[in-house]
User: What shape does this take?
Amino acid sequence: MTLSSPADPKAAKAAGPLPTGHVPAGKIGVMLINLGTPDGTDFKPMWRYLREFLSDPRVIELNKAIWYPILYGLVLTTRPKKSGANYARIWNRERDESPLRTYTRAQSEKLGQALGGLPEIVVDWAMRYGNPSTASVAQRLVEQGCDRILSFPLYPQYSATTTATANDQLFRALMKMRAAPAIRSVPPYYAEPVYIDALARSIERHLASLDFEPEVVITSYHGIPKPYSDKGDPYQAHCLETTRLLREKLGWSDEKLITTFQSRFGAQEWLQPYTDKTVEKLGHDGVKSIAIVNPGFSVDCIETLDEIGREAAETFHHAGGEKFAHIPCLNDSAEGMAVIEAMVRRELSGWV
Ligand SMILES: C=CC1=C(C)c2cc3[nH]c(cc4nc(cc5[nH]c(cc1n2)c(C)c5CCC(=O)O)C(CCC(=O)O)=C4C)c(C)c3C=C
Ligand SMILES: [Fe+2]
Ligand SMILES: [Fe+2]
Assistant: This one.
């Protein structure tokens, strides 16, 4: 076999014109990624959703040989019915979907409008678990000509159980692509002034609409198992910093704005203090009025609307409390969209 050198003019002529190296500029996808949600409240869709969620080794760190018999034999035989009944209470019947999906879509649509002046940008939204799947949305963006994707896991505070697994799933989708896009990921924004300002304004606006001034306001974050935190997940520190900055911004005392962790799952210890126990204790201690805000949830969902809006309210009233308010998440409000838009514009710099 003979190798023809580029210096050989005869061989170069026979090979035809060389490629020019010109590659048309691609589009840029912005992908909002939220946790995920079931497609329906019946047993089957609840089972599918919970199976995908609770099979994620970033979420349940137990050895599969130990966890799977518990998951399939116990959790997936009982929890779909119980959780399905909770989802049914908050279901968006007009669209036949969960609020988490409705709000995430609304955020994506509003972000698309806000970035409308940048023709190379395509905004879309996906779920880590369930639909629209991360893989299908990544594929759709690539098919629309995106050779760069900005991944935006919608969690202000980082946790391996949420932020990291959202990015894992995006890269898993890329593993199946020959021409995979470049990826950037929006970092956690737990201390960003735009986020703290948005929370403070939203809280002030909602408190002004109440007929009472709460004695205590609770910032309640989704918990994680304590061992995850002990092993280095910075989530707890991020939550505490958000509340500290919020307290500073609102000019409130340590006693007025407190931090708790909700939504325990399973038998092991989770981050403390627990929201339900704290709400009960406040009632027993004679506190008559409280408000709860969920800064760690970018949109209202089962954990805020049902666990806080219904369950925590009941717990407080049973413990002797009188006035209870649940402050909505930022959702697709003007304040909430200002946060998302600011983060996206900043992280796109250099690409646009
Ligand atoms: C070990 C289990 C779980 C960990 C760890 C966990 C972390 C975690 N989750 C969120 C945000 C959300 N979780 C939601 C629902 C939900 N979470 C778990 C379990 C763990 N979460 C379950 C089993 C469920 C399903 C509901 C139920 O059966 O009780 C939701 C709401 C989804 C919706 O459709 O409304 C959100 C949002 C965070 C931020 C987090 C760690 C920081
Ligand atoms: Fe959760
Ligand atoms: Fe819950």
